[in-house]
Amino acid sequence: GDGNGRPGKSAFIIDFNRYVPGTDHLGLKKLTINNMVQDPSCIHEFLGYALFRAGGVPASRSAYARVTFNGETKGLYALIESPDNDAFLERWYGAKDGNLYEGEYGADLRPEAVEAFDQDNGADRSRDDLRELTRALDALGPDDDPIDVMEAYFDLDEYLTFAATELYLGHWDGYAWSANNYMVHHAVPDGRWTFLPWGIDQLFEAELGG
Hints:
Blueprint: E1 12-15, E2 30-34, H1 44-54, E3 62-69, E4 72-81, H2 86-93, E5 99-103, E6 118-121, H3 128-138, H4 146-153, H5 156-168, H6 175-178, E7 182-186, E8 193-197
Antiparallel strand pairs: 1-2, 2-4, 3-4, 5-6, 5-7, 7-8
């Protein structure tokens, strides 16, 4: 593929379960391998996800690898733990059956955008929970207190930490600035929604208030 302007260095995902169900690698059933072509420093994802995790926000583990394909060296890549791994969900939520949705290309939590989300985990594919959430947010009037609705649906402390960390990292291509590159998880045990960072390869490129 074109690799975002770097021919021959495409990002890709390895699904260890695709042909042999039940197969994993070091406890992971899926691994995202990013080319870092939009991050010349090659540190954005490693540092960014670590800071989110340090604040208690569910975020991927990451590492580095030199990738070869059929004997051809492709260069240095970032290895990113995909959030739809059972091990990730169990570590952060204590269960692997919650619904996980990925928002991208400016898809915000609005009723008309529900179908624009990719559902990455969860047996219930109806999206009824996402519709309920977006309708509750959309129903807020000018005199309503949004905190009441937020506290009813979200782990509010987690969301504020998530948003503040995005701003601190200058993640202009994330949710706080652009309603892009993020995930939301609906936990089965307590029904709470939480935000997860994703696609954080373009950090440190915006200023607070900019």
